[in-house]
Amino acid sequence: MGTREKFDKDINEVYRMLGEMRDLAIDSINSSMEALDKLDEDAAKVALRNDVKSYDLMRNIENRCTALLMLQAPVAKDLRKIVTAMKSSGDLNRIIRYAKNISTLAIEMVKEKDEHFKKLIGLKGMKDKSIDMIEKAMKALLEENKNLAMEVYKEEEDVDALYEQIFRELITYMVEDNRKITRGVRYLLAGRYLERVADHACNIAEGAIYITTGERIAPD
Amino acid sequence: MSTKIRIKSLNGWFGEKQVLKDINLDIEENSITAIIGPSGCGKTTLIRCINRMHEVTPGARVEGSVLLDEQDIYKEDPVKVRERIGMVFQRPNPFPTMSVLENAVAGLKLKGIRNRKLLAEKAEEVIKAVGLWDEVKNELNKPGTSLSGGQQQRLCIARALAVEPEVLLMDEPASALDPVSTMRLEDLIYELKKEYTIVIVTHNMQQAARVSDYTAFLYMGELIEYSNTKELFERPKNDLTERYISGRFG
Ligand SMILES: Nc1ncnc2c1ncn2[C@@H]1O[C@H](COP(=O)(O)OP(=O)(O)O)[C@@H](O)[C@H]1O
Ligand SMILES: [Mg+2]
User: Ligand 1: which residue has its CA nearest to atom 18?
Assistant: First the structure.
């Protein structure tokens, strides 16, 4: 195999692993939110397991990219793809960490035999949006699609708006009844984690734009 | 920042064969400009047009203009032009019959300078300028060819500097050197840009990326892309450039 072919093969392998991390991320968010909603400890454990796998994948991607940088001194799109793969694997790993944090909230509620005092409609909305953002951002990354990446930026505003709404709603509940404070804070934290997830999805979208155009366009 | 050399509609031939096609290129003063491209694309010919060496080859011809400080060098005395625009070649080529010291000031001797004290002072100055003094100060009277390859190349640069040029053209100056000598040479080139305008031809893309401020990509006699080096290597505009620098050629 020629040097160039070997290089393409290595890069493709890195991006295949990023795809694997995306699947783990989406699985983690879905199951941790399911755990929180149903107060289901088994569902909560999925994100904990995924976190371990994701960390290994991230390290593996880092090692391969470091080797490519060292051995091939890549330039142009090759360089942009490697730099972006390293950053995006970090973003995906962070996303899984946040899912793990949500699982931890669920486990605490199970341990304390808590019951929900409301339906988690707003949080589910945030979850759906942020998963959609991850899917779009990763598709934009893998298919080098700038327009799709720009859509992710727009969706982040929706996530922020939902979080704002949840925040106000929960404050009202907690002010009315101080027995709801502990649970209210947990819902708030879950919202905060999902808001962070959406932010990392935007970073991935930014990487997709960088690969495609060479420009760094920050979401505003 | 100002333009030191302005190449306008430059065309070059060897006999019937056109090897440079309508090159337009502005070279910035006190900067390092790298010329890259596959072998045979015209890199050497281009820089030889910049100091009127191309036309010396029998059958070779040039059209268009090269302005040095806005004056067309093709309307001036070629000997004077080559004093202002020095050249360093691919293989170190110290004069074999001359000592280290004589080599350093060979150009001045050619100009008729005979004052031994002046020549010795100038030799020391330029040998120091290329970072060779401490290595050769006890061997100044040995033949220039007794030095190592890297030292010989720096001696050749010293020789070019002695006639006090404004521009230095270098044609793959590191291609015959080992990695350590190459690094030293790159450091030297970087130092020299404070006082000189440098154009370097290199087939080594990493070298171009490391040392140059601007990079020109030449392909089959045409200038395909010219921009600041970081830009050209991070986000080339032309697909040919992208393919060449990423090693997807041929
Ligand atoms: N002395 C010569 N006579 C005829 N053709 C030449 C001569 N030198 C170079 N050429 C041709 O001119 C073209 C450009 O050569 P050159 O400038 O040496 O390319 P590079 O330095 O990029 O390798 C090539 O096709 C080469 O074969
Ligand atoms: Mg050449």
Answer: B44
Domain ranges of chain A: 3-213
Distance from CA of A15 to the nearest CA of B (A): 18
What tens digit of pLDDT does each residue of B177-227 get? 889 989 989 999 999 999 999 999 998 899 999 999 999 999 999 999 999
Neighboring chain B residues of A73 at a CB cutoff of 8 Å: 205-206, 209
SS3 annotation, chain B:
CCEEEEEEEEEEEECCEEEEEEEEEEEECCCEEEEECCCCCCHHHHHHHHCCCHHHCCCEEEEEEEEECCEEHHHCCHHHHHHHEEEECCCCCCCCCCEHHHHHCHHHHHCCCCCHHHHHHHHHHHHHHCCCHHHHCCCCCCEHHHCCHHHHHHHHHHHHHHCCCCEEEEECCCCCCCHHHHHHHHHHHHHHCCCCEEEEECCCHHHHHHHCCEEEEEECCEEEEEEEHHHHHHCCCCHHHHHHHCCCCC
Q: Is the Cβ–Cβ distance between B77 and B20 less than 8 Å?
A: no
Ligand 1: centre distance to CA B23 (Å): 16
CA atoms of B10 and B65, how far apart (whole Å): 6
Pocket of ligand 1 (CB under 6 A): B 14, 19, 37, 39-45, 57
Look up the CATH number of domain A3-213: 1.20.58.220
Per-residue model confidence as pLDDT tens digits over A59-110? 999 999 999 998 888 999 999 999 999 999 999 999 999 999 999 999 999 9
What confidence score (pLDDT) does residue A156 get?
A: 96
